[in-house]
Structures are given as C-alpha cells and as structure tokens.
Amino acid sequence: MITGNHLILRGLELSDTDEILKHFNNVEFRRFLGPPLPVSKDEEEQWIRNTWENRKKGFEYHFGIELKENHLLIGGCSLFAVHQINRSAELGIAIWNKQYWSKGYGQEAIRLLLGYGFNFLNLHSIYLLVNEDNPRAIHAYEKVGFTHSARHRESIFQDGIFKDTLLMDILENEFRKLYPNSYPLFTE
Amino acid sequence: MNFENSTQIPTLYSRSNQTMFKGTKVQLRSLELDDAAVINQLYNHLEARRFLDDISPLSQEDIEEWIRTTWESRKAHRSYFFIIERLKPKQILGVCGLFAISPINQKAELMIAIYNKRDWGKGYGTEALHLLLKFGFQQLNLHRILLFTHDINTRAQHIYEQIGFKPSGRRRHASFFEGTYHDILLYDMLVSEFQAD
Fold first, then answer.
1. What are φ and ψ of residue A26, in 5° steps?
2. Nearest in space to A86 (alpha carbons), one of B191, B144, B182, B82
3. Other Cβ atoms closer than 10 A to B193
C-alpha cells in the first residue's frame, strides 16, 4: 500500500492475528502501551475488524508494518482520534518484534505515516503522547521532526508510581519543509 | 416568580429541588430531563459555544439524549456531569463535568461552561470549579485533573491559574477557530496541589 525504502504499510488482516499475539501478550513489549491486560485471539480479531470499521468512518487509520524484503509483519502504526474540523490526529506506533528495534524502522514507518496523514488525509497537525521513561521512542520522534509541546504531569501509573507523559507534535508546514519529496512516495 | 433582574428569562427556573454539592453562590446537581428546555435555549447560541468543541446546533431531543448518557456514564464511572445552578434565586447557569476518567491512572479531564454572558465575571464559575475539584479529589480519589483551553480565552486561563491549575504546555494549531488555527493550552492539577478551602 504505502511503500518506503525498507517497509510497507498495509491494512491489517485477520490472518495477522497469530503473528501479533506471538508478541502482544508480552509484558516487556506492552510496557509503554497502557496496563498490560491479556488479549485473547477472539478479541484481537474483533480489534482488527474494528480497524476496518473505523477506517471507513474516517475515525482511525491502522496499518501493519511489513518488511519489504520478506513480508514479515514487525509492528503496527496508526493515526487515530482524527478530528474532521481541526484536521488533527494522534499517532501511535509499536514495533512488536524486539529483534527489529533500533534499526530505524520505527522512524521510517512514522515518516510514511505522516506522509499519509498530510498528503492523503489533509491533516494540519499530528501529535503523539509518549512516556517520559521511554527515551528510545522520544529520540526517534525528535529525529523525525516532532516538537516537545506539553507535559501531562504524573499522568501514567506504571511500575507502582505516577510518571509524566510528553506531548509532541508536528505541523503540516514543518513536515513539508523537512520532507519535500514525501509525495507520492518517499525517496530517501 | 420573582427574579433578581427583569432581563432574566422565566424558563431558566428549574423545578428540580435537589441540593447536592453546595457552595455559597452555586450548587452542582445532576442533570434532569426537565433541564433540556433551558439548556436548549442557552446552548444554541454562538457566543455560549465559542470555546466549546462543537458548534453545530442541537435539538431538544439531542440534549435529552445527552442528559440520559450522563446518567449512564456516571454509573459506569466514565464521567460525572453536573448542572451549575445559582442558589438565590434559583437559576441554571451552565454545566460542568469530569470526563475521560482513567481509573488506573486516577485522572480525569475537566470542562465547565457558564452559558449566558450576563452570568460571567460574578464568581459563579470559580466556585463551581472549586466544588468540582473537591468532588474529584476527595470523593472520586483522583490523582490528577487536566483541562484544555483556547489560547485566546484569557478570561478562562486567568480563572484556572487563580484556582491553582498549572500551565503544562500546548497542542500547537490544534483548533480551527473562527477562520484560523489556534493553539490549545493544557492545564493540570495534582491532588497534592489542591487547596480544599
């Protein structure tokens, strides 16, 4: 669907369930994704079906992140909480296979997703929330071009204490300045 | 009926005789279906809606439906909405609430609206905010209460800062407002920062 140098972003299929569940019911992977409630296969399938419904309604756009070379699904990313009047959306991303962390795949997926949001959905701003204790993610967002804009103090209860959540955002004009060649495809 | 000044609209009077969270000027009480007509009259006004998220007109039935959902989500501990009612003489001033409650993170988002400009600047909002914060921190055991406000709504910002909210940042260009993009400011308060009296 959306193709970058190493990655493809594509819609999720029910046949992805097994690959997702291999990693999703893992406390380490789930550390920064809210309270780690276990997920059953049925629930995961229902969740995938919901991504189709929300896409049709224009509420949320979820993608699987696939490696171009072997079509392995290594993660997921999304634009959600789309606001039609304010032209804003929230971004989320997870590379669930630890083997593929710190290889720049997250950054590439985010750039592709931003390109989709700004070039196809006509968004004006895209923001995200990140745990203050997740420097790996914060670094990636900074490198892609996000700005630190707010701090939700003591907003996440994790490992027994309250931690801050950082809000970072990027505007369409900032994105276009950083990535003038984002349409139709990235040429990095 | 005797109203404080002649410009008051008689239908702003509510038949509800609840008293729940009471201050000196206002009280917070549950919404009643009876209130829909009053809200309909006050809410379908562009000035009242200026800084609220949605500017599309609402029918009385929309409002009744919304009132029913406030009862449901209260039972489910998802949100708590109240009518702000002046005590003497009794009159509906607006609505306030705690919503987007996260039970694990013990946080909620706050909203408040005094609909009629005539009722602004009289301390009603400040007292309602205080009652609502007290309810959130002392009854619901919240750890943090946050709110968002428009960058140009300086009147609101002043009140939030006076009552002890901390400015914690902004979402840049997050709101398309009267023809251009504006920033939305984030304010929050922790339970340790709340002054009960």
1. -135, 120
2. B182
3. 14
Of the candidate ranges A113-117, A153-157, B37-41, B76-80, the one whose mean pLDDT is the lowest = B37-41
8 A C-beta contact, residue A170 and residue A145: yes
Burial of A90 (0-12, 13-18, 19+ CB in 10 A): middle
* Complex ipTM value: 0.83
Euclidean distance between CA atoms A126 and B167, whole angstroms: 21
Interface test with B, best of A127, A146, A169 (most B CBs within 10 A): A169
pLDDT of residue B6: 38
Q: Which of B40, B38, B16 is nearest to B29 (CA)?
A: B16
Query: What residues of chain B lie within 8 A of the CB of A148, using their CB?
Result: 169
Contact yes or no for A88 and B171 at CB 8 A: yes
- Nearest CA-CA distance, residue B175 and chain A, Å: 5
- At position B19, the amino acid (one-letter code) is T
Say yes or no for a CB contact (<8 Å) between A169 and B171: yes
Rounded to a whole number of angstroms, the CA Rg of chain A reads 16
Please name the residue that has the structure tokens 């291999």: A22
For the stretch A131-149, pLDDT in tens is 999 999 999 999 999 999 9
- Torsion angle defined by CA atoms of residues A119, A93, A11 and A51, in that order, rounded to the nearest 10 degrees: -100
* Contact between residue B172 and residue A171 where contact means Cβ atoms under 8 Å apart: yes
Q: pLDDT tens digits, residue range A152-186?
A: 999 999 889 999 999 999 999 999 999 998 876 65
Count of CB atoms situated within 10 Å of the CB of B77: 10
Which superfamily is assigned to B11-193 in CATH? Gcn5-related N-acetyltransferase (GNAT) (3.40.630.30)
For the whole model, what pTM was predicted?
Answer: 0.86
Tell me, yes or no, if A141 is annotated catalytic. Answer: yes
Closest residue in A to B55 (Cα) is: A85
- Nearest chain B CA: its distance from A150 CA (Å): 4
Determine the CATH number of domain A2-178.
3.40.630.30
Residues in chain B closer than 8 A to A156 (CB atoms): 105
